[in-house]
Structure formats: C-alpha cells, structure tokens
Request: fold
Amino acid sequence: MTVRQDIHSSGLPILCQSCEARHRGVCGALDPDHLVGLAKVSSRHQIEAGVELIGDAEAIDSYSNVLSGVVKLTKSLSDGRQQIVGLQFAPDFLGRPFKVESEINAEAATAVSLCSFPKAAIERIMKESPELEHRLLKQTLNELDEARDWMVTLGRKTASEKVASFLLMIARNTDSSIDPAARSASFDLPLTRADISDFLGLTNETVSRQLTRLRADGVIRIENKRHVTVDSMNRLEQRCGGRRARQPPFE
Amino acid sequence: MTVRQDIHSSGLPILCQSCEARHRGVCGALDPDHLVGLAKVSSRHQIEAGVELIGDAEAIDSYSNVLSGVVKLTKSLSDGRQQIVGLQFAPDFLGRPFKVESEINAEAATAVSLCSFPKAAIERIMKESPELEHRLLKQTLNELDEARDWMVTLGRKTASEKVASFLLMIARNTDSSIDPAARSASFDLPLTRADISDFLGLTNETVSRQLTRLRADGVIRIENKRHVTVDSMNRLEQRCGGRRARQPPFE
DNA sequence: CGAGAGATTGACGGACGTCAAGTTATGTGG
DNA sequence: CCACATAACTTGACGTCCGTCAATCTCTCG
Reply:
C-alpha cells in the first residue's frame, strides 16, 4: 500500500510531516526531492509483538525505519541456544546494507510500527546522496559502540550486574529520555524474562531471581510483572559494575 | 616523521606503491590526488607488542591503517576486569571517526606496523570523497557483524566451544587466508593465554585446560606454547557449536 | 645459571544452570 | 460469573561448569 500525500502543503509528503525519523533518523539526510521520491514507494505497517520481520538466511528486499516499539535482533546456534545481539528503538534504521542475505533474525519484541522502503530505492538514493551514507555510518558506529559495551557485560559481569545494566539501558531508552539526567525513572519492560535472559546470556530463572533481589533491596519496584520503577538511578548505576575511571594522576 | 616519496614514478607516492591498504583497505577509495595529499602527512611506525596505541578517555588526534600484526581493542571495568572487544588485522582502519574521545583502549597484541594520518586530514578528505565514507561504512558494518557473532560466543557458548571458535577465527585471519577452503591450518597465536581469556570472557586457567583438552583429543597440536596446527578444520568446526542450519522445509 | 613471565595442572568452592513445582495473569467458553 | 487452559513468572533443591587459589613447569633473556 502506498499512502496518499499532498506535496503542496509544504513540499513534504504528508506521510513524513510528523515523522520522527525525518529529524533524528536517516530521513533527515534527504533533500525534499529525494524524500518525495522515497515517500511514494514507502509504506507504514503496524506489527504485533512476536512477529518475525527478517528471517535468518532470508533474502533482504526492504529496509525500514522503526517508528515506535522495540525490535530485537537475534542469532541462534543449531541446538536452539539463542542470543539477542541488539535492540532497535525509534528512529533506528533496520536492515543490513550491501548484503543480499541476512545472517540475523529480527522480531518485534513489542507492538511495532515501521516505515518500509524497497531495497532498490534506498540504494539508488544512497548513490546520489552522500549525506545518507554519512547518517548510516554514524548510526552503524553507534551500534558498534553499543555492541562492544554489551560484550563487556556478557563476558565480564556477574548475573546481578547484567540485570542492573539491562534495566539501566532500558530506562535510558524510554520515557526517561525526556530528561537524561533524571534521578528516577518508570517504564514498561519491552522484553519478557526469557528475552531478557537471551539478551544477557542467562536463564530466565536467574533473571527472575536477580529482579526479586533488586526489589528486595529496594532498588526497584515492580507492578504487574512488567512495569518497573527506579527511585534512585544512582543506586541502580552502582550495581552495574562501573566503567574504569581515569587513572589517578600519580601512579 | 614523514617518509620521502617520488610522485613521478607512477603518480603514486612511493610509500603507497606496495601498500596492501591501497587495495583492500580504505586507501583504495582515494583518487591519486587525495592519495598524494594524504601521503605527505602520513607516517609509518613499527610498534612492539604490549604498547598502548590509544588510551581510554584520551583525545584522538590521528587515525591509522594496520599494515601488519594484530591490534587488540579492550574495555575495562573499574575493578580491573577486562574484555577484548575486537581484534584488528591488516588492512583494517584503526580509530573512531566523529568522536573527540575514545571509550576504548587499543594495544599492540603482537609487533605491529601502522600507517598513521592526522585526524584532520582524514576528515577533510572524507568531506570531499564519498567513496572514502563508503569504504568506512562497509568496514564498520563488517566489524558490527563480527561483534555480534562474538556476542553469541560470549553469551551462549561453553568454555570449550569458545576456545575452539577462537582458534577457528585466528586460523581464518592468518596464513590460511591464502586458501579459505583449506582443510588444515598452521599459525602462531597472536595472543597470550591471558589475552585469549579476556577475549572469551574466561580465565587463563580455563583457556589453558581447554587447549590441552583439544590437544589430548587430537584436534590440534601445539609447539612452543604459541604455534598451533590444525589437521582437520572440520573437526575443529564441529567443536564450535554450529550456527543454526536452515529449518527443514516441512515443519 | 638464575630471574621472571607465561603456561600448566590440581584441589576446592561458588555462581549459575537444570529440573521441577507452584503462583499469577489473561483469555476462552460454558 | 465461574471453570478451565495457557503462558509468563517465581521459588526451591540440587548439580556442574568454571573461577579461585596455589604449586609446579617451561621458556626466554640477562
């Protein structure tokens, strides 16, 4: 389906006028001509939790922007062990340029809305507009930084540090993004316990135990299994196994 | 130090004529003019194992190409726990564009030779030459793929699968790159046992035990602690905890 | 030869996985 | 409205893989 648009209202496709991706996402790199051209072949989708978006070893024929919700990227071993290797929030760009086949699985972790484009359209624009590649490079570098941070978490942190780090990451990617320095936060977990364990390299039992420990220690409160309140972000951060501070100046 | 060059011999700076990075590395993206300009301000360095190249929280003022040897990228927690988050081989590009400060430590794991450029020079050329950004994007995407593969290893594999996976990765990045389908391989480990454990999220004792187990089982032979021979890559691969194969077509 | 770093091997303990039972939340149909 | 089913979650008991600590061995280099 292609969405109706009124180019005269402001030079922008109606589809894009209120779209977050046009500012913070990759579409911000496009001039009006490209945006109009792209909007003609793009389409919005509402997807419910649990639906697979990109299958492992499937051909990729489209890319998307995440407009709301959370998408989980997973990899699996042959015996069923699974690892979440990334989470994508709005307005992230979803898809792996320059590869015909995905080595990754993408699945809606929550209800998700996407704006999808044919692969060919993006790649044509990419050739004409260096600014688009520039944005993609920046996002990819950010994802690489995040992946490397999680490698530290996966390889070197204890179970309780892992769970605390996960909560901190979610808190920073949701409503508390309104105020990054907020001293408290309240949010819904976008993942089930099983998903969280796949993200942290643990079992759901261990995740559950660590959450109840955090609750017993007064670091978090939990309502309805999914809603988490953090009164003191400081206390939560202390449980994450901090990054190395600068060395003291004199040995 | 800036190396002498003879532009007349072929239009290429002498420094670059025999350089691997000019073909497979980022320099392959540059036209002769840019290459000449860059060569004027670039310099080669020989660095011995153990030297720190980029410190955590240090200002970044130069980028480099790795010409030979192996560079390890590490992150640390405040109590000293350390994780290697990436290895760079020739002809990888070393450095994090668009950030004033590194959040990562880079250290020569073996003797290394680098070709370094001032940060400003690269960034100027990047603005003029979209092809350079294109190469950087491709390398960054590859590094992201690798990082995500290691996340599976860190989060979901057993100690013996981790060690086998590590050996396989090293085998594929060294002399066996001559023949990617080779059924056997022989190479020097670029990392100490302690480094390997920091890479795999283990202790050096566990790494050592797994290596002796692989040796006892006849999968590998070890000479002089560092030199490894793999007679059957197949047998090694079987110990890596394979990736999921395609689902059987009917259910 | 001696010193020191790196590596190996063993004994032991603890953190986390496994297995299993029980609880809560949500929906479904009578 | 209640009985029931199902999925997600919690909690406990127990076992094991891997970390910790310590002794010994092997190289390399002065």
Notes: Chain B has two domains: 4-149, 157-238. Chain B has a mean pLDDT of 89. Residues 192-194, 204-205, 207-209, 211-212, 225 of chain B lie near DNA strand C (CB under 10 Å from a C1'). The CA atoms of residues 63 and 95 of chain B lie 5 Å apart.
